[in-house]
Amino acid sequence: MLENKKALLFALLILQNANFLVAICLVLFGLYALLFKKNLIKMAIGIAIIASGINLFLISAGYRKGGVAPIFTEATIKASEAETRMVLPTPQALTLTNIVISLAVTALMLSLAIRIYQQTGTLDATKLGRLDEL
Amino acid sequence: MRDMSKIVKITALVVLAPLITFGLYIIAHGHLTPGGGFQGGVIIASCFALLFIAFGKQSKHMLNKELLSVAESLALFGFVFLALLGLRKSFLNNFLANSGAMFGASVPFGTKEAYINTAGTIPLMNILIGLEVSCALTIIMLLMLNEKVSKHAGK
Amino acid sequence: MKAAKIIFVIIFAYFLIACALLLRPFGSPTETTMDEYFIKNAQIETASNNVVASIVFDYRGLDTLGEATVLFAAVSGVILLFRGGVPK
């Protein structure tokens, strides 16, 4: 009986924190692609997946149960309860920053991959020599 | 990159104008509704991506790379200039808000109606950032389109 | 080498999951003083109905300036990489 209750509590903990766990899964998938894949484009995809995991974590960190978006235009709540029912706006602003920066980083990485393929004819990171031999 | 059939080209040209208008709407209403400079800029850049997909190599001559990069630099310069204009109080001070001039109408707490003549420098900064993001992404796509990636590119 | 990588990933995953489960219950943030100030004063101080826009362009404008500069630097890097043909 006691063990049953413990397992139930653990399942509840996991279900309640599903957003954080999915964000961690995305970060780990990206890390796997970075560490174990040798293709440069797959490594770029790994970094993009890590960035989306961080985005999900930031958005989940600022969420309030039953909250609405922090925009007053046609909001469905009363103005007096806005402070306690609106979702935190600062993590959303930081997520916006993170999206644009990850986009810039991805564009630069893909350009480098194209250039490396043009120079050497391969995308395998282990077959590339030193950079000054390019 | 090869160009696609005539049907795709005509459809892309037909869809282009409403999509760019939608991007401009998202930019202009950034201080009232969800959206803003970044999102609208990305929508406008995606219109040019549609153009590149449909027209292939012919779209190289439709857009001027130098003009786009000059527009991007001018937008970033305008952002810094607008931030410097508020130096009477502090850097990035919103000097137009609640002043009664352009975009200067004040909003009491809890208003749910949307008035476009509000928010001070925020709409102007939205427009500048939208110009910068759309030009930046279009330049990146244009440069990647020009590159030749063949099997025997190396030695 | 590969075993070291796998051990690193497992230890990293353990710490991340422990952090996620011990952080706080999802949906009830604890430190909200700054955000409550933003929600309460955004309409009065910046006259903007969209609180996120007022944070991005007014309260934390320097962040946005740095972000636009990063985008500008990335475009400069791409132009630099693709400036000429393949050298012989």
Notes on the structure:
Chain A has 134 residues and is mostly helical. Chain A has helices at residues 2-16, 18-36, 40-61, 82-85, 89-120. Chain A is 69% helix and 0% strand. Chain B is mainly α and 155 residues long. Chain B has one domain. Chain B has helices at residues 6-28, 37-55, 65-85, 122-146. Chain B starts with 5 loop residues before the first helix and ends in a 9-residue tail after the last helix. Chain C is mainly α. Chain C has one domain (2-81). The radius of gyration of chain C is 22 Å and the shape is flat. Chains in contact: A-B, A-C, B-C. Chains A and C meet through helix 1, helix 2 and helix 5 of A and helix 1, helix 2, helix 3 and helix 4 of C.
* Oligomeric state: heterotrimer
Q: Counting H and I runs of at least 4 residues, what is the number of helices of chain C?
A: 4
Helix content of chain C: over 70%
Q: In terms of structural class, how would the helical and strand content of chain B be classed?
A: mainly alpha
Distance between the termini of chain C: 37 Å
Shape of chain C: flat
β-strand percent of chain B reads under 5%
Compute the number of structural domains of chain C. 1
Gap between N and C termini of chain B, in Å? 23 Å
Which percent bin holds the helix content of chain B?
Answer: 55-70%
Question: What is the alpha-carbon Rg of chain C in Å?
Answer: 22 Å
Number of structural domains of chain B = 1
Tell how many strands the DSSP assignment of chain C holds.
Answer: 0
- What integer is the average pLDDT of chain C? 85
Mean pLDDT across every amino acid position of chain B: 85
Topology readout:
The complex is a heterotrimer of chains A (134), B (155) and C (88).
Chain A: H1 2-16, H2 18-36, H3 40-61, H4 82-85, H5 89-120
Chain B: H1 6-28, H2 37-55, H3 65-85, H4 122-146
Helix pairs in contact in B: 1-2, 2-4, 3-4
Chain C: H1 2-23, H2 33-46, H3 51-59, H4 61-81
Key features of this structure:
heterotrimer; A: 134 residues; 5 helices; 69% helix; C: 88 residues; mainly alpha; 4 helices; 75% helix
At a glance:
Chain A has a domain at 40-63 and 80-128.
